[in-house]
Amino acid sequence: MTADPRPSDAIDASAWGVAHDELVELLRGLIRIPSVNPQPEPGFDGELRAAGWIADRLRESGLEPEVVEPVPGRGSVSVRLRGDGTGGDPLLLLGHLDVVPAPPDRWTHDPFAGDVADGYVWGRGAVDMKNLVAMELAVVRLLAAEARDAGRDPAIDPIPGLHRDVLYTVTADEEAGGLAGIAWIVENRPDWLQAAGAINESGAVATTYGGRRFYPIGVAEKGYAVYRISVTGTWGHGSMPRDDNAAVLAAQVVARLAIQGPPRLTSTMAEFFRQLASNLDGDAARVLGALASDDPRLSEAAVDRLCDPMSSRVVRALLRDTVSPDIIHAGVKYNVIPGEATVELDCRILPGTTEEQMRAAVIERLGPELAAVCDVSLLLFGQPVDAPASGDLYDTLVRVVREHDPDGVPLPFMVPFATDAKHTVKLAIPTYGFSPLRLDPEERFLERFHGVDERVGLDALRWGLPVLYDAVRRFCG
Ligand SMILES: [Zn+2]
Predict the structure, then answer these.
(1) How far is the centre of ligand 1, averaged over its atoms, from the C-alpha of 388 (Å)?
(2) pLDDT per residue over 25-39, tens digit each?
(3) Which of 67, 98, 211, 271 is surrounded by the fewest CB atoms within 10 Å?
(4) What is the pLDDT of residues 80-110, one digit of tens each?
(5) How far is the CA of 175 from the centre of ligand 1 (A)?
(6) Residues paired with residue 380 on neighbouring β-strands, in sequence order
(7) CA–centroid distance, residue 96 to ligand 1 (Å)
(8) Cβ atoms 162, 83 nearer than 8 A
(9) Residues 456, 462, 467, 469: is their CA dihedral positive or negative?
(10) How far is the CA of 417 from the centre of ligand 1 (A)?
């Protein structure tokens, strides 16, 4: 622990108790607004209502938020807290309002009731990501209250002790690529995002491994390229089978692409393994050390030996560009040989792989004969993200985690999925996954994303709020 007092120490325990209770109510309020994406019907206004609800909470704090609605029913909200301008570019607190649908049949609690039970807040978005949206909102409201207590108007005056501005921007449509949310903001309101760095979802959630508690901070994300392969065969009568039946050719496409390619170690994963190894002992340390040294012969077996099946799947995905054939269409009638078929691929690419390289790898794996009857077209593309695991903001995040959990190990990590960070990268904003939660070792947090009975622990939130507050105060102070 550093000798320097933590900014959060200036707030006494009972005031943190009040702030925690308020955080829980903010989270429940957000969960009760079913901001599902895709919209159940055109014009459905869940995201707009959630944006308006946040704007109301910000106005209660004396701030002047703005809401935009680029597509009917789809709102995003932003507010700026002022620093005195002596500390450089702003800090961005980023989040998304939308959640994936939650068919209620298998839930033990109504996914949109925001129940508190058994030490958890339950509901769709409790993990992805209304928890962090509410934590960021709670921090913004604390800062605004400190300005009011100092006799200042938080809408226009600097917040006491802040040298940089703090931007809080929460967007629609993250779960479907961001076109109706952050992509629109990048084009039309970049002032809502322009910052020295951003705090975003997916990181700093405690994970216990080998008896140590680790806090993987999201510095990198895989990108994606979605392809449609149109396979051309020959139409015919089902009574006389043909080798160039497009369904048969599509099956070969799927079989070839389902075999994953060779591993490639990125700098983030190398650093992740290196830091894991240096904080563990024995066999685990040796194998992780070997993984960090980029020996592809070791990686598959090592990963399987070290991890449970869920974690091995994650780690294997983080060591290569992956291909998942997820949609196959062929055929019109049982006795008609199909002359055409389509296969859609979800390819997830590592930082350093371009779309052109991914496409070339797909075509190469088909082989020349199969590739000759396939046309590969790009449907969607999201850039990989790779922020530095160093610099003022990253170092601040590491520091505040250590200050709040001296036995915990913060370390850089890459997530296998994409977030809104693929858009902030276009404005060159280093974006970090940092939604600090201290969890019990048994908690299956990763499985709660988009899952049944999504929920977040009250104690995890209680720990996280002052961590986030200190991250903001330390970086902007
Ligand atoms: Zn999310």
Answers:
(1) 21
(2) 999 999 999 999 999
(3) 211
(4) 999 999 999 999 999 999 999 999 999 999 9
(5) 7
(6) 226
(7) 7
(8) yes
(9) positive
(10) 10
Q: Which two tokens stand for residue 440?
A: 């019990």
| pLDDT for position 1 | 47
Chain centre distance of CA 476: 24
Residue type, 238: G
* Mean pLDDT (the chain, rounded): 94
Q: Helix/strand/coil (H, E, C) string of the chain?
A: CCCCCCHHHHCCHHHHHHHHHHHHHHHHHHHCCCCECCCCCCCCCHHHHHHHHHHHHHHHCCCCCEEEEEECCEEEEEEEEECCCCCCCCEEEEEECCECCCCHHHCCCCCCCCCEECCEEECCCCCCCHHHHHHHHHHHHHHHHHHHHCCCCCCCCECCCCCCCEEEEEECCHHHCCCCCHHHHHHHCHHHCCCCEEEECCCCECEEECCEEEEEEEEEECEEEEEEEEEECCCEECCCCCCCCHHHHHHHHHHHHCCCCCCCCCHHHHHHHHHHHHCCCHHHHHHHHHHHCCCHHHHHHHHHHHCCHHHHHHHHHHCCCEEEEEEEEECCCCCEECCEEEEEEEEEECCCCCHHHHHHHHHHHHCHHHHCCEEEEEEEEECCEECCCCCHHHHHHHHHHHHHCCCCEEEEEEECCCCCHHHHHHHCCCEEECCCECCCCCCCHHHHCCCCCCEEEHHHHHHHHHHHHHHHHHHHC
What is the CA(201)–ligand 1 centre distance, in A? 6
Using 70 as the pLDDT threshold, list the residues of the chain that sit under it. 1-3, 294-299
Distance 128 CA to ligand 1 centre (A): 5
Q: Decide: 114 and 219 in contact? Cβ < 8 Å.
A: no
Token pair, residue 320, equals: 């290569």
How far does residue 50's CA lie from ligand 1's centre (Å)? 15
Q: Ligand 1 centre and the CA of 256: distance in Å?
A: 32
Q: Which of 471, 461, 477, 453 is nearest to 106 (CA)?
A: 453
- Residue 82 has a CB neighbour count (10 Å cut-off) of 18
Of the candidates 208, 120, 128, the one whose C-alpha atom is nearest the C-alpha of residue 456 is: 120
* CA 363 to ligand 1 center in whole angstroms: 32
